Amino acid sequence: MAVRVKSIDTLLSQPEVRGWVERHGRDAAVAALRKSAETVRAELRGEDAARTQDAVDAAVLEGAAALLASRAQSTLRRVVNATGVILHTNLGRAPVSRAAADAMAAAGLGYASVEYDLQAGARGRRDVHAEPLIRELTGAEAAVAVNNNAAATLLVLTALAAGREVIVSRGELVEIGGGFRVPDVMAQSGAILREVGTTNKTRAADYGAAINDRTGLILRVHPSNFRIEGFTARPALEELAALAREFSLPLYEDLGSGLLAPDPRFPSEPSARHSLAHGAGIVSFSGDKLLGGPQAGIIAGRADLVDRVRRHPLMRALRVDKMTYAALEATLHAHAAGRADEELPIWRMIALSADDIQARAAGIMASLPSSLDAELVDGSSAIGGGSAPDVELPTRLIAIAHATLSADDIEARLRAGDPPVIVRIQEGRVLLDLRTVAPEEDATMMAALARL
Question: Are strands 429-433 and 392-402 parallel, antiparallel or unpaired?
Fold first, then answer.
Protein backbone atom coordinates (compact mmCIF):
# COMPACT_ATOMS: atom_id res chain seq x y z
CA MET A 1 0.00 0.00 0.00
CA ALA A 2 1.43 3.38 -1.03
CA VAL A 3 2.31 5.74 1.73
CA ARG A 4 0.55 9.08 1.94
CA VAL A 5 0.50 12.20 4.03
CA LYS A 6 -2.08 11.83 6.74
CA SER A 7 -4.95 14.27 7.12
CA ILE A 8 -4.51 17.36 9.24
CA ASP A 9 -7.17 16.12 11.67
CA THR A 10 -5.24 12.88 12.15
CA LEU A 11 -1.98 14.75 12.70
CA LEU A 12 -3.64 17.05 15.22
CA SER A 13 -4.43 14.05 17.38
CA GLN A 14 -0.74 13.25 17.85
CA PRO A 15 0.51 13.98 21.43
CA GLU A 16 3.39 16.06 20.08
CA VAL A 17 1.04 18.20 18.02
CA ARG A 18 -1.37 18.70 20.93
CA GLY A 19 1.56 20.27 22.76
CA TRP A 20 2.10 22.65 19.83
CA VAL A 21 -1.55 23.69 19.95
CA GLU A 22 -1.16 24.60 23.64
CA ARG A 23 2.03 26.61 23.04
CA HIS A 24 1.35 28.27 19.69
CA GLY A 25 -2.44 28.08 19.21
CA ARG A 26 -4.50 25.81 16.97
CA ASP A 27 -4.46 28.09 13.92
CA ALA A 28 -0.67 28.34 13.91
CA ALA A 29 -0.27 24.57 14.36
CA VAL A 30 -2.71 23.80 11.52
CA ALA A 31 -0.99 26.29 9.18
CA ALA A 32 2.44 24.77 9.91
CA LEU A 33 1.16 21.22 9.36
CA ARG A 34 -0.48 22.16 6.06
CA LYS A 35 2.63 23.87 4.74
CA SER A 36 4.88 21.00 5.80
CA ALA A 37 2.42 18.45 4.34
CA GLU A 38 2.44 20.24 0.99
CA THR A 39 6.23 20.13 0.93
CA VAL A 40 6.36 16.41 1.74
CA ARG A 41 3.68 15.58 -0.88
CA ALA A 42 5.74 17.38 -3.53
CA GLU A 43 8.81 15.42 -2.47
CA LEU A 44 6.93 12.12 -2.65
CA ARG A 45 5.76 12.83 -6.21
CA GLY A 46 9.33 13.39 -7.32
CA GLU A 47 10.88 10.37 -5.59
CA ASP A 48 11.63 7.04 -7.27
CA ALA A 49 12.06 5.09 -4.04
CA ALA A 50 9.11 4.88 -1.69
CA ARG A 51 9.44 6.00 1.92
CA THR A 52 7.91 4.20 4.84
CA GLN A 53 4.79 5.63 6.43
CA ASP A 54 6.73 6.32 9.61
CA ALA A 55 9.32 8.30 7.61
CA VAL A 56 6.61 10.37 5.92
CA ASP A 57 4.90 11.12 9.24
CA ALA A 58 8.20 12.10 10.81
CA ALA A 59 9.05 14.40 7.87
CA VAL A 60 5.75 16.24 8.13
CA LEU A 61 6.07 16.69 11.88
CA GLU A 62 9.71 17.75 11.64
CA GLY A 63 8.91 20.36 9.01
CA ALA A 64 5.97 21.71 10.98
CA ALA A 65 8.04 21.89 14.16
CA ALA A 66 10.73 23.89 12.33
CA LEU A 67 8.13 26.31 10.97
CA LEU A 68 6.62 26.86 14.41
CA ALA A 69 10.03 27.35 16.00
CA SER A 70 10.93 29.95 13.36
CA ARG A 71 7.59 31.71 13.88
CA ALA A 72 8.07 31.84 17.65
CA GLN A 73 11.58 33.25 17.51
CA SER A 74 11.73 37.01 17.99
CA THR A 75 13.46 39.08 15.32
CA LEU A 76 14.96 41.11 18.18
CA ARG A 77 17.48 38.78 19.81
CA ARG A 78 20.09 39.19 22.50
CA VAL A 79 23.57 38.88 20.98
CA VAL A 80 27.10 38.71 22.35
CA ASN A 81 29.05 41.73 21.09
CA ALA A 82 32.69 40.67 20.67
CA THR A 83 33.53 43.43 18.18
CA GLY A 84 35.09 45.85 20.67
CA VAL A 85 32.79 48.66 19.47
CA ILE A 86 31.20 49.86 22.69
CA LEU A 87 28.34 51.94 21.29
CA HIS A 88 27.57 49.65 18.36
CA THR A 89 24.60 51.30 16.63
CA ASN A 90 23.58 48.10 14.81
CA LEU A 91 23.58 46.22 18.13
CA GLY A 92 21.52 48.76 20.08
CA ARG A 93 24.24 51.11 21.37
CA ALA A 94 24.46 51.28 25.16
CA PRO A 95 23.27 48.28 27.16
CA VAL A 96 21.45 49.64 30.20
CA SER A 97 22.41 48.98 33.81
CA ARG A 98 20.77 46.36 36.01
CA ALA A 99 19.09 49.17 37.96
CA ALA A 100 17.71 50.65 34.73
CA ALA A 101 16.48 47.24 33.53
CA ASP A 102 14.78 46.62 36.87
CA ALA A 103 13.16 50.06 36.75
CA MET A 104 11.87 49.37 33.22
CA ALA A 105 10.45 46.03 34.31
CA ALA A 106 8.72 47.57 37.31
CA ALA A 107 7.18 50.31 35.18
CA GLY A 108 6.20 47.96 32.38
CA LEU A 109 4.68 45.21 34.50
CA GLY A 110 2.26 47.52 36.26
CA TYR A 111 0.78 50.97 36.25
CA ALA A 112 2.97 54.02 36.86
CA SER A 113 2.48 57.68 37.70
CA VAL A 114 3.59 58.75 34.23
CA GLU A 115 0.94 61.50 33.99
CA TYR A 116 -0.52 61.47 37.48
CA ASP A 117 0.37 63.86 40.29
CA LEU A 118 0.37 61.70 43.42
CA GLN A 119 0.43 64.70 45.76
CA ALA A 120 -2.45 66.51 44.13
CA GLY A 121 -4.41 63.37 43.29
CA ALA A 122 -5.03 64.70 39.78
CA ARG A 123 -3.64 64.52 36.26
CA GLY A 124 0.00 65.53 36.13
CA ARG A 125 2.60 66.21 33.45
CA ARG A 126 4.67 63.61 31.65
CA ASP A 127 7.49 65.95 30.68
CA VAL A 128 8.68 66.58 34.25
CA HIS A 129 10.16 63.10 34.76
CA ALA A 130 13.98 63.07 34.95
CA GLU A 131 14.06 66.89 34.74
CA PRO A 132 15.45 67.54 38.26
CA LEU A 133 18.33 65.11 37.68
CA ILE A 134 19.14 66.55 34.24
CA ARG A 135 19.19 70.06 35.71
CA GLU A 136 21.46 68.92 38.53
CA LEU A 137 23.92 67.17 36.21
CA THR A 138 24.08 69.78 33.45
CA GLY A 139 23.42 73.08 35.22
CA ALA A 140 20.40 73.70 32.97
CA GLU A 141 17.39 75.72 34.13
CA ALA A 142 14.94 73.29 32.51
CA ALA A 143 14.94 70.06 30.53
CA VAL A 144 12.69 67.64 28.64
CA ALA A 145 13.20 64.23 27.02
CA VAL A 146 12.04 62.98 23.62
CA ASN A 147 12.58 59.68 21.81
CA ASN A 148 16.05 60.32 20.31
CA ASN A 149 18.47 63.12 19.52
CA ALA A 150 17.31 63.44 15.90
CA ALA A 151 13.83 64.09 17.29
CA ALA A 152 15.31 66.59 19.73
CA THR A 153 16.98 68.46 16.87
CA LEU A 154 13.77 68.50 14.85
CA LEU A 155 11.73 69.71 17.81
CA VAL A 156 14.13 72.49 18.86
CA LEU A 157 14.40 73.84 15.32
CA THR A 158 10.63 73.66 14.80
CA ALA A 159 9.76 75.29 18.12
CA LEU A 160 12.39 78.04 18.00
CA ALA A 161 12.98 78.79 14.32
CA ALA A 162 10.19 77.55 12.02
CA GLY A 163 9.87 79.97 9.08
CA ARG A 164 13.08 81.77 10.03
CA GLU A 165 16.73 81.43 9.08
CA VAL A 166 19.09 79.22 11.05
CA ILE A 167 22.78 80.04 10.67
CA VAL A 168 25.13 77.06 10.57
CA SER A 169 28.67 76.48 9.36
CA ARG A 170 29.15 74.50 6.13
CA GLY A 171 31.63 72.35 8.00
CA GLU A 172 28.87 71.22 10.36
CA LEU A 173 26.27 70.12 7.81
CA VAL A 174 26.95 66.52 8.68
CA GLU A 175 25.41 63.17 7.86
CA ILE A 176 25.51 60.49 10.54
CA GLY A 177 24.35 56.87 10.64
CA GLY A 178 21.13 55.87 8.92
CA GLY A 179 21.29 58.79 6.44
CA PHE A 180 20.41 61.41 9.06
CA ARG A 181 21.44 64.76 7.56
CA VAL A 182 21.26 68.09 9.33
CA PRO A 183 19.97 69.98 6.24
CA ASP A 184 17.16 67.43 5.75
CA VAL A 185 16.02 67.67 9.37
CA MET A 186 16.14 71.44 9.14
CA ALA A 187 13.94 71.38 6.04
CA GLN A 188 11.38 69.22 7.85
CA SER A 189 11.35 71.64 10.77
CA GLY A 190 10.33 74.55 8.56
CA ALA A 191 13.50 76.46 9.38
CA ILE A 192 15.49 78.01 6.55
CA LEU A 193 19.12 76.94 6.22
CA ARG A 194 21.66 79.76 6.03
CA GLU A 195 25.15 78.35 5.41
CA VAL A 196 28.20 80.37 6.36
CA GLY A 197 31.95 79.90 6.03
CA THR A 198 33.59 77.02 4.20
CA THR A 199 34.00 73.31 4.81
CA ASN A 200 37.28 73.72 6.67
CA LYS A 201 37.16 77.31 7.96
CA THR A 202 34.36 79.31 9.52
CA ARG A 203 34.86 82.35 11.73
CA ALA A 204 32.58 84.24 14.11
CA ALA A 205 32.55 87.13 11.63
CA ASP A 206 30.90 84.82 9.07
CA TYR A 207 28.02 84.24 11.46
CA GLY A 208 27.79 87.96 12.27
CA ALA A 209 27.63 88.94 8.60
CA ALA A 210 24.72 86.54 8.01
CA ILE A 211 22.49 87.88 10.80
CA ASN A 212 19.48 89.82 9.60
CA ASP A 213 15.86 90.46 10.59
CA ARG A 214 14.90 86.96 9.37
CA THR A 215 17.40 85.17 11.59
CA GLY A 216 15.80 82.92 14.17
CA LEU A 217 18.66 80.93 15.68
CA ILE A 218 22.38 80.16 15.58
CA LEU A 219 23.10 76.43 15.35
CA ARG A 220 26.35 74.74 16.33
CA VAL A 221 26.63 71.02 15.49
CA HIS A 222 29.19 68.68 16.99
CA PRO A 223 30.76 66.68 14.12
CA SER A 224 30.40 63.50 16.23
CA ASN A 225 31.79 60.84 13.92
CA PHE A 226 34.52 62.61 11.92
CA ARG A 227 37.31 65.14 12.26
CA ILE A 228 38.60 67.79 9.86
CA GLU A 229 42.33 68.27 10.39
CA GLY A 230 44.97 70.60 9.00
CA PHE A 231 44.10 74.08 7.71
CA THR A 232 40.95 74.60 9.80
CA ALA A 233 39.21 77.20 11.92
CA ARG A 234 36.06 77.11 14.03
CA PRO A 235 34.87 79.86 16.37
CA ALA A 236 34.89 79.10 20.07
CA LEU A 237 31.54 78.59 21.70
CA GLU A 238 32.08 81.74 23.76
CA GLU A 239 32.42 83.82 20.56
CA LEU A 240 29.12 82.55 19.21
CA ALA A 241 27.49 83.08 22.60
CA ALA A 242 28.58 86.72 22.64
CA LEU A 243 27.19 87.17 19.13
CA ALA A 244 23.89 85.54 20.11
CA ARG A 245 23.55 87.82 23.13
CA GLU A 246 24.33 90.91 21.06
CA PHE A 247 21.47 90.16 18.66
CA SER A 248 19.14 88.49 21.22
CA LEU A 249 19.20 85.17 19.36
CA PRO A 250 19.09 81.65 20.80
CA LEU A 251 22.32 79.66 20.47
CA TYR A 252 21.55 75.96 20.10
CA GLU A 253 24.30 73.32 20.29
CA ASP A 254 23.55 69.81 19.08
CA LEU A 255 26.05 67.83 21.18
CA GLY A 256 25.06 64.36 20.04
CA SER A 257 27.15 62.10 22.24
CA GLY A 258 25.66 62.67 25.69
CA LEU A 259 28.74 63.51 27.74
CA LEU A 260 27.32 65.27 30.81
CA ALA A 261 30.46 66.93 32.16
CA PRO A 262 34.05 67.35 30.94
CA ASP A 263 36.02 64.10 31.15
CA PRO A 264 39.82 63.87 30.63
CA ARG A 265 39.34 60.56 28.81
CA PHE A 266 37.49 62.47 26.08
CA PRO A 267 39.36 65.76 25.65
CA SER A 268 37.75 66.58 22.28
CA GLU A 269 34.20 65.69 23.26
CA PRO A 270 31.99 68.63 24.34
CA SER A 271 29.81 68.19 27.40
CA ALA A 272 26.38 69.53 28.23
CA ARG A 273 27.56 71.21 31.44
CA HIS A 274 30.45 72.99 29.68
CA SER A 275 28.32 74.16 26.76
CA LEU A 276 25.58 75.60 28.95
CA ALA A 277 28.10 77.24 31.28
CA HIS A 278 29.88 78.88 28.33
CA GLY A 279 26.93 80.45 26.61
CA ALA A 280 24.77 77.93 24.79
CA GLY A 281 21.13 78.78 25.42
CA ILE A 282 19.91 75.26 24.70
CA VAL A 283 21.58 71.91 23.97
CA SER A 284 20.49 68.42 23.00
CA PHE A 285 22.19 65.03 23.27
CA SER A 286 21.54 61.31 23.16
CA GLY A 287 20.54 59.11 26.06
CA ASP A 288 21.99 55.89 24.66
CA LYS A 289 25.51 57.07 23.85
CA LEU A 290 27.96 58.30 26.48
CA LEU A 291 25.14 58.85 28.93
CA GLY A 292 24.87 55.05 28.98
CA GLY A 293 21.09 54.82 29.18
CA PRO A 294 18.06 54.11 26.97
CA GLN A 295 17.40 55.61 23.57
CA ALA A 296 16.28 59.17 24.20
CA GLY A 297 16.99 62.74 23.20
CA ILE A 298 17.64 65.17 26.04
CA ILE A 299 16.90 68.88 25.56
CA ALA A 300 18.27 71.17 28.27
CA GLY A 301 18.93 74.86 28.72
CA ARG A 302 17.32 78.18 29.54
CA ALA A 303 13.83 77.88 30.97
CA ASP A 304 12.23 80.24 28.41
CA LEU A 305 13.64 78.25 25.48
CA VAL A 306 12.83 74.83 26.91
CA ASP A 307 9.30 76.00 27.74
CA ARG A 308 8.75 76.92 24.08
CA VAL A 309 9.89 73.43 23.13
CA ARG A 310 7.73 71.87 25.84
CA ARG A 311 4.58 73.66 24.65
CA HIS A 312 5.00 72.84 20.94
CA PRO A 313 2.38 70.40 19.53
CA LEU A 314 5.16 68.21 18.10
CA MET A 315 6.27 67.41 21.65
CA ARG A 316 3.40 64.95 22.04
CA ALA A 317 4.40 63.06 18.90
CA LEU A 318 8.00 62.73 20.06
CA ARG A 319 7.48 62.05 23.77
CA VAL A 320 8.92 58.98 25.49
CA ASP A 321 7.06 56.25 27.36
CA LYS A 322 7.07 55.26 31.02
CA MET A 323 9.76 52.56 30.59
CA THR A 324 12.17 54.99 28.92
CA TYR A 325 11.67 57.49 31.74
CA ALA A 326 12.26 54.73 34.30
CA ALA A 327 15.54 53.65 32.68
CA LEU A 328 16.64 57.24 32.11
CA GLU A 329 16.12 58.21 35.75
CA ALA A 330 18.01 55.13 36.98
CA THR A 331 20.90 55.99 34.64
CA LEU A 332 20.99 59.61 35.77
CA HIS A 333 20.98 58.51 39.42
CA ALA A 334 24.17 56.52 38.77
CA HIS A 335 25.85 59.63 37.33
CA ALA A 336 24.59 61.82 40.17
CA ALA A 337 25.98 59.41 42.76
CA GLY A 338 29.37 59.23 40.99
CA ARG A 339 28.93 55.51 40.31
CA ALA A 340 28.80 55.53 36.50
CA ASP A 341 32.07 53.57 36.13
CA GLU A 342 30.78 50.87 38.47
CA GLU A 343 27.09 50.66 37.51
CA LEU A 344 26.75 51.59 33.83
CA PRO A 345 27.97 48.88 31.42
CA ILE A 346 29.55 51.19 28.84
CA TRP A 347 31.53 53.05 31.48
CA ARG A 348 32.75 49.75 32.97
CA MET A 349 33.91 48.79 29.48
CA ILE A 350 35.66 52.11 28.97
CA ALA A 351 37.45 51.73 32.32
CA LEU A 352 38.87 48.28 31.50
CA SER A 353 42.63 48.13 30.88
CA ALA A 354 44.34 45.92 28.31
CA ASP A 355 45.70 43.84 31.21
CA ASP A 356 42.18 43.29 32.57
CA ILE A 357 41.07 42.04 29.17
CA GLN A 358 44.15 39.83 28.70
CA ALA A 359 43.48 38.00 31.97
CA ARG A 360 39.98 37.04 30.84
CA ALA A 361 41.15 36.19 27.33
CA ALA A 362 43.74 33.77 28.68
CA GLY A 363 41.02 31.86 30.54
CA ILE A 364 38.91 31.53 27.40
CA MET A 365 41.88 30.45 25.25
CA ALA A 366 42.79 27.73 27.73
CA SER A 367 39.38 26.12 27.20
CA LEU A 368 39.38 26.12 23.39
CA PRO A 369 39.36 22.84 21.43
CA SER A 370 42.54 21.78 19.64
CA SER A 371 40.92 22.39 16.24
CA LEU A 372 41.16 26.12 16.87
CA ASP A 373 44.38 28.09 16.62
CA ALA A 374 44.23 31.10 18.94
CA GLU A 375 46.69 33.78 19.94
CA LEU A 376 46.62 37.09 21.78
CA VAL A 377 47.34 40.18 19.69
CA ASP A 378 47.43 43.88 20.42
CA GLY A 379 44.56 46.00 19.17
CA SER A 380 42.22 48.84 19.99
CA SER A 381 38.56 49.15 20.93
CA ALA A 382 36.33 51.94 19.59
CA ILE A 383 33.73 54.03 21.37
CA GLY A 384 31.44 53.96 18.31
CA GLY A 385 27.96 55.39 17.91
CA GLY A 386 29.30 58.63 16.47
CA SER A 387 31.08 59.45 19.72
CA ALA A 388 34.73 60.28 20.34
CA PRO A 389 36.09 59.14 16.95
CA ASP A 390 39.58 60.18 17.97
CA VAL A 391 39.64 57.96 21.09
CA GLU A 392 41.06 54.45 20.78
CA LEU A 393 41.24 52.20 23.83
CA PRO A 394 44.21 49.77 23.89
CA THR A 395 43.02 46.18 24.14
CA ARG A 396 44.11 42.56 23.71
CA LEU A 397 42.33 40.54 21.06
CA ILE A 398 41.85 36.81 20.67
CA ALA A 399 42.73 35.96 17.05
CA ILE A 400 41.03 32.73 15.94
CA ALA A 401 41.87 30.51 12.97
CA HIS A 402 40.69 27.00 12.00
CA ALA A 403 42.39 24.27 9.98
CA THR A 404 39.46 23.81 7.58
CA LEU A 405 37.11 26.74 8.16
CA SER A 406 37.78 30.17 6.67
CA ALA A 407 37.39 33.34 8.71
CA ASP A 408 34.10 33.99 6.91
CA ASP A 409 32.90 30.46 7.78
CA ILE A 410 33.76 30.96 11.46
CA GLU A 411 32.05 34.36 11.55
CA ALA A 412 28.92 32.95 9.91
CA ARG A 413 28.71 29.99 12.32
CA LEU A 414 29.17 32.19 15.37
CA ARG A 415 26.53 34.60 14.05
CA ALA A 416 24.11 31.71 13.46
CA GLY A 417 24.47 30.39 17.02
CA ASP A 418 22.10 30.73 19.94
CA PRO A 419 22.81 33.34 21.12
CA PRO A 420 24.59 34.84 18.09
CA VAL A 421 28.16 35.96 18.71
CA ILE A 422 29.15 38.99 16.62
CA VAL A 423 32.87 39.32 15.80
CA ARG A 424 35.11 41.17 13.38
CA ILE A 425 37.47 39.88 10.69
CA GLN A 426 40.86 41.39 9.95
CA GLU A 427 43.63 40.07 7.71
CA GLY A 428 41.93 36.70 7.31
CA ARG A 429 41.49 36.08 11.04
CA VAL A 430 38.52 36.31 13.34
CA LEU A 431 39.13 38.78 16.17
CA LEU A 432 37.30 38.78 19.50
CA ASP A 433 37.50 41.76 21.83
CA LEU A 434 36.30 40.94 25.34
CA ARG A 435 35.95 44.61 26.26
CA THR A 436 32.37 44.51 24.96
CA VAL A 437 31.61 41.02 26.28
CA ALA A 438 30.09 41.03 29.77
CA PRO A 439 32.00 38.74 32.18
CA GLU A 440 28.85 36.67 32.68
CA GLU A 441 28.88 36.01 28.92
CA ASP A 442 32.34 34.36 28.94
CA ALA A 443 30.85 30.88 29.36
CA THR A 444 28.51 31.51 26.43
CA MET A 445 31.46 32.65 24.34
CA MET A 446 33.47 29.53 25.21
CA ALA A 447 30.53 27.25 24.35
CA ALA A 448 30.09 28.99 20.97
CA LEU A 449 33.77 28.56 20.15
CA ALA A 450 33.75 24.93 21.28
CA ARG A 451 30.92 24.19 18.81
CA LEU A 452 33.22 25.18 15.96
Answer: antiparallel
Q: What distance in Å separates the CA atoms of residue 280 and residue 186, rounded to the nearest whole number? A: 19
* Dihedral over Cα of 411, 78, 147, 338: its sign: negative
Q: What is the pLDDT of residues 65-86, one digit of tens each?
A: 999 988 888 888 999 999 999 9
Q: Is the Cβ–Cβ distance between 214 and 194 less than 8 Å?
A: no
Mean pLDDT across the stretch 178-196? 83
CA distance 124 to 115: 5
Measured CA to CA, the distance from residue 444 to residue 418 in angstroms comes to 9
Return phi, psi of residue 265, to 5°: -75, -15
Contact 241, 280 (CB under 8 A): yes
In this structure, the strands spanning 372-382 and 297-301 are unpaired
Q: Residues 363-416: pLDDT tens digits?
A: 999 988 888 899 999 999 999 887 887 788 999 999 999 989 999 999 999 999
Please choose, from the candidates 227, 266, 256, the residue with its C-alpha nearest in 3D space to the C-alpha of residue 350. Answer: 266
pTM of the predicted model as reported, rounded to 2 decimal places: 0.89
